[in-house]
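From the shared-data thread, chain only:
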Amino acid sequence: MSQLDQLSDKDIEERYSIRGEKPVAFMLGGFTKTREAFSVHFHGGDEMFLTTLLAVQADKGRLIFDCSGSVDTNKRFLLSEKNFFRGHPGGVPVQFSTGKASELSFEGDKAFSVPLPDHIVRLQRREHFRIETPRVNPLILFARMADGRLLKLPVHDISVGGAGVDAPELPEGVDLGTVLQSCHFALPGDSKELYFSATVRNYRDFETRVGQRGWRIGVQFEGLSMADQSRIQRYIAKVERERHELS
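Structure, as tokens:
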């Protein structure tokens, strides 16, 4: 049985959590110094906006961050009892939840504050378990280029943070940093597809065992919900378990 296969969603959260008032304040304080961008999800994940962490006031037990650019969104956010923050500082997924927000003035502008979380989940790069996907009935990634072209590419390998997809030719317009919009794929056995955007992080040409040439493109997932990340983790564990049973 693989290491990931032995972990429940609760185990994953507990294993990779930073806990304690001082460690949490210290980590969040570092994110405010570099003005890290986070997404804030509220009302059960039905709404979200992008924000920047501005300051940690440990003596008052609160985190300060930018308001949304929408007055209506800000009003609805202030009614939310529980809020979830997600970001990728330095390319490492970080997430935490907080209670109800308040409005305040910070450095002359309107801002929000929330109580400091009791823990932060931070997945190290090495914890992004990556597996090769089955060759029979492979996962298919659908994506849109900026000009509207549809890409339909088989997935070679996958982790919570991204995937490697194969193409017979490097699609025109694909380069490092290219953002693929309206991406989606369906995990085997799931009735609901995963939707996200993806950023091209690397690509290379390769040759198969039978002499065919192609391109492998590495993409980083953007905008995956915590629930969808858990679905990928469970899929990886399932594939690992089935391979272990066959070995």
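The chain has a mean pLDDT of 85.
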